[in-house]
Amino acid sequence: MTTHTPASTTVTNIGVTMFTVADQDAALEFYTGKLGWEVRGDTRFGPDGQYRWLEVAPPGSTSRLALNPPMGGGQPGGCGIGVETADVHGEYARLRALGGVQIDSEPESSPGAPLLFMISDPDGNHIAVVEV
User: Fold this and answer.
1) Are 114 and 66 in contact (CB under 8 A)?
2) CB neighbours (10 Å) of residue 101?
3) What is the pLDDT of residue 11?
4) Among 8, 47, 55, 62, which is disulfide-ready with 40 (CB 3.0 to 4.6 Å)?
């Protein structure tokens, strides 16, 4: 039998999650205009400023979401995150009434899992809205 001794780490938080998007400006409009998130960073970098680091987050969140163009021949979409709310049904109703948001499931819960519903951004990245 092998025993595993965990290695210690200095990492204390997941600060940034990254989604690949086809158009950073369109993604920015979706996350700020539809979901109501705020811009946390929008910086040009690289030798000629050809790259853009764009971060958004729900107001009050310590974690951020970076919206990146595809790199290394990759395609947009296919990532996923979970976001938290105290009122899944209220957020579901708000997004349905707003329109322009792809809602993939109604609020549901199963034994051992929290109440949640799923949405997708315009690039096909998945967001689980989870009640806490």
Assistant:
1) no
2) 17
3) 81
4) 55
**In Å, how far are 68, 79, 115 from 18, measured between CA atoms?**
7, 8, 24
What pLDDT is stored for residue 84 in this prediction?
Answer: 96
User: pLDDT tens digits, residue range 39-89?
Assistant: 999 999 999 999 999 999 999 999 999 999 998 889 999 999 999 999 999
pLDDT value of position 1: 61
What is the DSSP pairing of strand 102-103 with strand 116-120?
Answer: antiparallel
pLDDT at 32 over 90: yes
65: left (phi over 0), alpha (psi -120 to 50) or beta: beta
Q: How far apart are CA 78 and CA 115, in angstroms?
A: 23
Contact 41, 55 (CB under 8 A): yes
Measuring CA to CA, which residue among 32, 125, 131, 127 is closest to residue 78? Answer: 125
Q: Which amino acid is at 25?
A: D
